[in-house]
Amino acid sequence: MLRILGKASSINVRKVLWTCDEIGLRYRREDWGSGYASTHAPAFLALNPNGQVPVIEDDNGVLWESNTICRYLAGEYGRADLLPSAPARRARVEQWMDWQASELNVAWRYAFNAIVRRDPAYGDPALVEAGTREWNGKIGILDRQLAATGAFAAGDTFTLADVVLGLSVNRWLMTPLERPHYPAVIAYYQRLSERPAFLAHGRNGLP
C-alpha cells in the first residue's frame, strides 16, 4: 500500500491526498510535520533531505516534491485524463502546475505568513500590503485564464493543474484580506466543489 508521510493540514500533502482520491488509491498516511513527528528526525531526513512533507513510498521507492508526486501517481496508474500523454496537452497541464509552484506560491508567502500564521518574521506592514497586491495579481492571471477556458485551468476538462491550483484558490479565499472580485475564479471554486475529493481535501477550511 502507498505510504504518505505528512500531516493532513499541509497544503502540499493535501495535493497528494486529493490526487489519490481522484485515482481511487488506497494509502496509509502518517502524521509528520509541525505538531507531530519532526521532519528533521534522522529517519525522515533519510527519506527527504529537505525535511519537508509530503513524502511517499511505494514499491518503486521514495519520492518527494508534491507536484512531482502527483504527476507520478497519475502516470503510474494510467490516468491520462489527469495528466495527458500527448506532449502538447501535457505541457499545458504542467505549465499551470509549474506556475503554481514557482509564481503563485512565491506571491502569497509573505502575506499569508503575516496574516494567518502571524509569524513575527513577516511583520512589515508595507511588505504585507505589497504581498497582498502581488497575490491578488497572480490570482487575476488565473481568473483571465479561467474566463478564456470557461471551465478548468488547462482547458475544458479537470486535470492535475486543477488539484494544485484549487488548493491555492482555497487558501486565497480563506485568508482574511482585501481582494478583487474575480468571477471566473469564484465559478471555478464552485465547480471544483462538485468533486467529493475536493470537498474532502480542498475545501475543508484548513490553511
UniProtKB/TrEMBL annotation:
Fetch the CDD domains from UniProt: GST_C_2, GST_N_2
Taxonomy, superkingdom = Bacteria
Every copy of the GST N-terminal domain together lies at 1-81
Pfam families given in the database record: GST_C (PF00043), GST_N (PF02798)
MF terms from GO for this chain are: glutathione transferase activity
What's the EC number here?
Answer: 2.5.1.18
Keyword line: Transferase
Supply the Gene3D superfamilies for this chain: 1.20.1050.10, Glutaredoxin (3.40.30.10)
Specify the GST C-terminal domain's residue ranges.
Answer: 86-207
Q: Does the keyword Transferase apply?
A: yes
Q: Does the keyword Lipoprotein apply?
A: no
* PANTHER family (alphabetical): DISULFIDE-BOND OXIDOREDUCTASE YFCG (PTHR44051:SF19), GLUTATHIONE S-TRANSFERASE-RELATED (PTHR44051)
The text of the family note is:
Belongs to the GST superfamily.
Query: Any idea what this protein is called?
Result: Glutathione S-transferase
Q: To which species is this protein native?
A: Labrys monachus
- Print the organism lineage: Bacteria, Pseudomonadati, Pseudomonadota, Alphaproteobacteria, Hyphomicrobiales
